């Protein structure tokens, strides 16, 4: 039985395997074991063991002609199941892309998932790209994003206080709202208007932007 790596109860070998999976996914098809070891900071023998285990389990594949490794097909099935959990179907994706083209800006679909406010889908293009790191699965800084504010505004006040107590309200830029009374006042306006305004609250380089956001609750 594998022992926890420290007193927190985390399993070191599992963390290393997930780190390898993330590195291969970020690199794209064709990263070699030596490159993975170098980027992860692991010795080559450990890296080969982790890569071979992930290949055996279907999360990575070994590419032909010595090209290295790539993501395996089991990752795709996990993504599909997660999309189903978040209620992201083809009809919704088509609508999101239509909104993106009309607004000439990245469009985000965000849902409640238990205690998280999470980005479940994004529609963008090279001409109108999404902002980094706002991508599928992003679940932070709801107080500093337009779509986050819309969902916060729809919460009962007690539930919202509990959420923000756990998530926090870190100052990300000089414009970020970090006082609960100030955010409550803004969210009351958002709830009535149906529009959230965000001006460089999440990222200083973002140009001022206004979004109309719509939400769907998921179980």
Give a description of the structure:
The protein has about 220 residues and is α+β, with helices and mostly antiparallel strands. Helix content is about 45%, strand content about 15%. The chain has helices at about 10-25, 35-40, 45-55, 75-85, 90-105, 145-155, 155-165, 180-195, and strands at about 60-65, 70, 105-115, 115-125, 195-200, 210. It has a two-stranded antiparallel ribbon. It has a two-stranded antiparallel ribbon with strand order 3-4. A two-stranded antiparallel ribbon has the order 5-6. Strand 3 and strand 4 (about 115-125) form a beta hairpin. Helix 1 packs across helix 3 and helix 2 (about 35-40) packs across helix 3. The protein is elongated. Residues about 1-5 and about 205-219 have low confidence and may be disordered.
The helix/strand series, from N terminus to C terminus, equals HHHEEHHEEHHHEE
Low-confidence stretches: 1-5, 206-219
Helix proportion range: 40-55%
**Largest sheet: number of strands, sense, barrel closure:** 2 strands, antiparallel
The N- to C-terminal Cα distance equals 36 Å
Could you tell me the strand content as a percent range?
5-15%
What structural class do the secondary elements suggest? alpha+beta
* Overall spatial form: elongated
Strand order of the main beta sheet, please?
1-2
Task: Please count the beta strands (DSSP E, at least 2 residues each).
Answer: 6
Provide mean pLDDT, rounded.
87
**Radius of gyration in whole Å, from Cα?**
21 Å
């Amino acid at each position: 039985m594998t022992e926890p790596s420290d007193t927190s109860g985390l399993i070191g070998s599992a963390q290393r395997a997930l780190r390898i999976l993330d590195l291969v996914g970020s690199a794209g098809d064709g990263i070699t074991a030596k490159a993975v070891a170098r980027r992860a900071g692991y010795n080559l023998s450990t890296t080969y063991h982790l890569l071979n285990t992930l290949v055996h389990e279907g999360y990575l594949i070994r590419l032909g002609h010595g090209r290295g490794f790539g993501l395996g097909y089991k990752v795709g099935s996990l993504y599909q199941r997660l999309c189903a959990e978040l209620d992201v179907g083809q009809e919704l994706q088509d609508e999101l892309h239509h909104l993106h083209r009309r607004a000439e800006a990245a469009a985000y679909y965000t849902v409640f998932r238990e205690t998280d406010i999470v980005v479940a889908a994004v529609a963008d293009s090279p001409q109108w790209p999404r902002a980094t790191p706002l991508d599928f699965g992003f679940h932070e800084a709801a107080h500093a994003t337009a779509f986050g504010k819309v969902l916060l505004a729809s919460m009962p006040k007690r539930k919202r206080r509990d959420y923000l107590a756990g998530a926090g309200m870190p100052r990300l830029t000089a414009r970020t709202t970090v006082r609960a009374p100030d955010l409550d006042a803004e969210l009351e306006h958002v709830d009535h208007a149906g529009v959230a305004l965000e001006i460089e609250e999440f990222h200083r380089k973002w140009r001022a932007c206004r979004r109309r956001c719509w939400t769907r609750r998921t179980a």
